[in-house]
Amino acid sequence: MPARFFAVFNITKRPLLAFFAIALMVFSIACRDGRPPNDVHSVADVPERIIGALAGTPSARLADELGTAREYGSGDELMFGLLSGYVECAVIESIVAGELVLRTQGVKVLSDTLVEYELRFAVPRENAELLDVVNSALLALEANGILRSIRDKYFSGRSYEYVPQTETGQLGGMLTLAVSSDSPPYSFIDSDGEYTGLDVEIARAVCDYLRVELRVVEEDVRELVTAVWFGRADFAAGWLPADIDEHVKVTEAYANTAYVIVVRR
């Protein structure tokens, strides 16, 4: 046993002094690299905390519902805030969290998932035809492997370039998709100034299958359902509230996602 441990435990005749010496030693070990100690060890510890999240993403809404949200413009800024103790933990989409943890020393993902849900498109309640044809397109795209390839591109980092298929279309015309512009990997603007991401590429594949033009419009993540409800968009993809059936209908799922908690080690 190292000498410093003997030095502490030899103060047995002064229990109060021994207690403070041990506490100081543990705290010093926890903070020896400049990081404050972590006391968020499970999802149950998260509520009422100061929680970091990426600005404009569903995680920011989750953080705000759980405690005091502090939003950051990038993943690296969020990790700095966590390591520096400005936030006690961070809520991050699982794929993004995995990438950040790989390149950031001193952080980890908790084993229990905060929330997981299926990704679906929202369509107007009164447009049963659109709901049916989008579901038909998703079923066909799942069968021919296109949906799986797009998911693998964004979830697993596999190289894939979507190429439109040649099936006969059903609708004609144009469909307008509402998405958030800063919710990677689901929807964001690329270096060429174009909308892209998992949701956008799958919507594009659906429109190509139906032989209609896709138009993408930006909406705040909290206004996606409203955009469809009030007719600003034909369908929407992104964070869809639990009470969505009161306002719109949803398609079959095209992917699954999860949000996790990242903490200091």
What proportion of the residues form beta strands (DSSP E)? 15-25%
Distance between the termini: 25 Å
Shape: elongated
Helix content: 25-40%
Please, how many domains? 2
Radius of gyration: 24 Å
Classify the fold: give the CATH topology of the largest domain: D-Maltodextrin-Binding Protein, domain 2
- How many beta-strand runs? 14
Taken in chain order, the helices and strands follow as HHEHEHEHEEEHHEEEEHEHEEE
**Biggest beta sheet summary:** 6 strands, mixed
Structural class: alpha/beta
Number of helices: 9
CATH class of the largest domain: Alpha Beta
CATH architecture of the largest domain: 3-Layer(aba) Sandwich
Give unreliable regions as ranges: 1-13, 17-32
The mean pLDDT is 84
Features of the shown structure:
265 residues; alpha/beta; D-Maltodextrin-Binding Protein, domain 2; 6-stranded mixed beta sheet; 5-stranded mixed beta sheet; 14 strands
Structure in words:
It contains 9 helices and 14 strands. With 265 residues, the protein is of the alpha/beta class. It has 2 domains: 3-116, D-Maltodextrin-Binding Protein, domain 2, CATH 3.40.190; 121-239, D-Maltodextrin-Binding Protein, domain 2 (3-Layer(aba) Sandwich), CATH 3.40.190. Strand 9 (187-189) and strand 10 (195-196) form a beta hairpin. Helix 6 (128-143) packs across helix 8 (198-210) and helix 7 (146-155) runs antiparallel to helix 8 (198-210). The protein is elongated and about 60 Å long. It starts with a helix and ends with a strand. Mean pLDDT is 84; it is low at 1-13 and 17-32.
